[in-house]
Amino acid sequence: MKALQVELDNGRGYPIYIGSGLLAQTELLTRHIRSKQVAIVTNETIAPLYLAPLRAALSAYQLEAVILPDGEQYKTLGYLEKIFDQLLAAKFSRNATLIALGGGVIGDMGGFAAACYQRGIAFIQIPTTLLAQVDSSVGGKTGVNHALGKNMIGAFYQPQCVIADADVLDTLDDRQLSAGLAEVIKYGLIRDPEFLAWLEASMPLLLARDKTALAHAIERSCANKAEVVGEDEFESGARATLNLGHTFGHAIETGSGYGHYLHGEAVAIGTCFAADLSRRLGWLNDADVERIVALFKAAKLPVTPPASMTAAQYVDLMAVDKKNVDGKIRVILLEAVGRASLPVNVELTHLQETLNTYVG
Amino acid sequence: MKALQVELDNGRGYPIYIGSGLLAQTELLTRHIRSKQVAIVTNETIAPLYLAPLRAALSAYQLEAVILPDGEQYKTLGYLEKIFDQLLAAKFSRNATLIALGGGVIGDMGGFAAACYQRGIAFIQIPTTLLAQVDSSVGGKTGVNHALGKNMIGAFYQPQCVIADADVLDTLDDRQLSAGLAEVIKYGLIRDPEFLAWLEASMPLLLARDKTALAHAIERSCANKAEVVGEDEFESGARATLNLGHTFGHAIETGSGYGHYLHGEAVAIGTCFAADLSRRLGWLNDADVERIVALFKAAKLPVTPPASMTAAQYVDLMAVDKKNVDGKIRVILLEAVGRASLPVNVELTHLQETLNTYVG
């Protein structure tokens, strides 16, 4: 097992445990639990796989399992309220602990529920998808979607720890594995060219679920994320670079209906958009863009947007992105392969040209 | 005008401006606004009184007024979502500023909306009731109610400033004025015996809305609140003493249906409960309890609970209070007139005796 540390002020730093067989190491979990009351928030897909062993490991506690339906379309205030309903019915107090057991949706919702329940209770992330292990479980971004925009309602709220057990990836389907690789590739593109080269060489091993390769990808991704979050917890600067491809990606997720694309799939398409825009600014050349597109394709990810969406729809959906200032559209681009830009105002003509390339 | 400062770490301290005619001093407001986008959250009672002048003062901004129905029964996640709907429809970004213009309900909901919208935007409190000016607008407690408990969903989220204009109390009805006095009396009871004696002497002046007396009551209350919050922002210690009477009060508000009692009325009744329990522990004598009850009566506040509620209902409702640990009921009591206790576990027999006195 490896333990990386996310460094934050006021004693709020926390460990990310990475390794195999971690879910069976109950002590990793119990050292971060504050009282007898423990809620496990999970979904209908994950519960049959991992809830029973977790329940058994925590049999000394007053356990409450909240089982939500599986999918991005349920990441709403309405389903968040179901978590509150159950915790209040069980009379859970402010020193209870909430464990989010699942992928990015469950981690975001469980974390936001923990942030708001009685103005904040302890929570622990047990991510069960590659995407959640390498990205969403680390850094304290929590929230739910709104019909008008993804992750528009939420909080910065840090967990007590993150437990990333590579063994749970055995039950992940291929599509979910690829979606996670989109965020892994992102770290290489924005700040770690050496890792990017390793990913290009190792993609066949990763898709074949080689344990050593996967563990290395998780570690390197979490190390990059922890560094960025430690520098800029509330996204006033460098943290925004983690959003490479996300402004376009969120527009695709919202515009095509939550649940149609996996988040990582939309990010892959969005990053290809961002690479194209970077070329129009003269920051990348044709070969750079082709290299990026090729890596996403090698990871079995989509690289072109849904035919159903119009350019006007993208502009409209991107206008509510959290990085915008006074109504201007701002995105993260690439100054080079391996180096992200800070948020830049997008020229509407460039945006239109890029969108025309794809959405005709 | 006086400006008190709430001292918090990480540069999050903020001023409370107290005086007459402050709403006309636009610069007080604009120095805390971050961008062109300004949302005003208010309700149907306050909007006709104060929205037009505020709009006029802020005519240089992109203004969005969110007008909610008036009453504690609308302090729900459902109505909170209406705020998000409107801000997203207007494409408000993360550097927008939200102004809460209203009483405690509007301040709590506006603050919670600001805490969650795009994971946090700037907000300003303009409290329009005495209760909000002396208590709820200061200290960063925000949130909404749940059918199973008051303020159960929320966040600690501090404003940029609080503007307490004593002139707005001219439009407050007598019942609301008295409700505010319940929280004013609380400061005297928990930590300021000199202020308590002044309140006993000045109650007729306060009820007659003498401006000098009211301004003194607001200042002294805010100074007490700012000190307590500065010492213990997240209620791990001394801040809990501000909840004197609130555990019982919340049970009354929830049990009798939100909107039936004003918050201050329920707190007055709850504080009389707490005084009675303190006597049973030998901390207060009969004369102390009579003195406390007499002051609430002088402020035209109720001191006996609704006949409709049973002792079992109180115990059940108090079991979800935020101060509880592992299911034990904990309340703030008085060690003396002018000195609060820290949270104490309540003996069920004592609680039953106190409840029997009132609810038969």
UniProtKB/TrEMBL annotation, chains A, B:
It is found in: Cytoplasm. Zn(2+) binds at residues 183, 246, 263. Keywords: Amino-acid biosynthesis, Aromatic amino acid biosynthesis, Cobalt, Cytoplasm, Lyase, Metal-binding, NAD, Nucleotide-binding, Zinc. Residues 180-324 form the 3-dehydroquinate synthase C-terminal domain. Binds 1 divalent metal cation per subunit. Can use either Co(2+) or Zn(2+). Belongs to the sugar phosphate cyclases superfamily. Dehydroquinate synthase family. This is 3-dehydroquinate synthase. The lineage of its organism: Bacteria, Pseudomonadati, Pseudomonadota, Gammaproteobacteria, Methylococcales.
